[in-house]
Design a protein that fits this description.
Order of helices and strands: HHHEEEEEHE
Largest sheet: 6 strands, mixed
Oligomer: single chain
Helix content: 25-40%
Radius of gyration: 14 Å
Structural class: alpha+beta
Number of strands: 6
Number of domains: 1
């Protein structure tokens, strides 16, 4: 039987040092300071659940993405600190997806379904072995 996924501080330690460096330097890559703080707070909440390392893209928002063979999940912290998320299960008919519009509170108001989708997409990507090294945020 495999060991359970790490949680809490153990989960945070399981991400590559380069990933944490990227998170600490978000403002140098175009994120507003308050937005970077909100993205980091959201990431700490996500890391408690131990998903695989996401891709990070910074454009209008700081976006964390997990793409696997079946599931795809994006969660984005916008400049005004609102959060939007999108989930797709490729086994469902085209055009059928889940997600939400923008929310006022980045972490506290994410619904339970978001966390369920994170568990699916984050675990699948880790199982598929396609979690790339994270040298720093992409600018997109």
């Amino acid at each position: 039987m495999p060991d359970p996924a790490p949680t809490g501080a153990d989960a945070r330690r399981s991400y590559p040092e380069a990933f944490w460096h990227a998170m600490a330097t978000l403002p140098k890559h175009g994120a507003e300071p308050a937005q970077a703080g909100a993205a980091l707070a959201l990431w700490y909440e996500i890391a408690e659940r131990g998903p695989s390392t996401p891709d990070i893209v910074i454009s209008e928002g700081v976006k964390f993405s997990w793409f696997g063979p079946r599931y795809a999940l994006d969660v984005e912290v916008m400049r005004d600190r609102r959060v939007a998320w999108y989930f797709r299960d490729s086994s469902l008919p085209l055009g059928q997806s889940e997600g939400t519009g923008d929310l006022d509170e980045p972490v506290e108001r994410l619904p339970a379904r978001f966390w369920e989708c994170l568990a699916l997409a984050g675990a699948e990507r880790a199982d598929a072995g396609n979690a790339p090294p994270v040298p720093g945020p992409s600018e997109g």
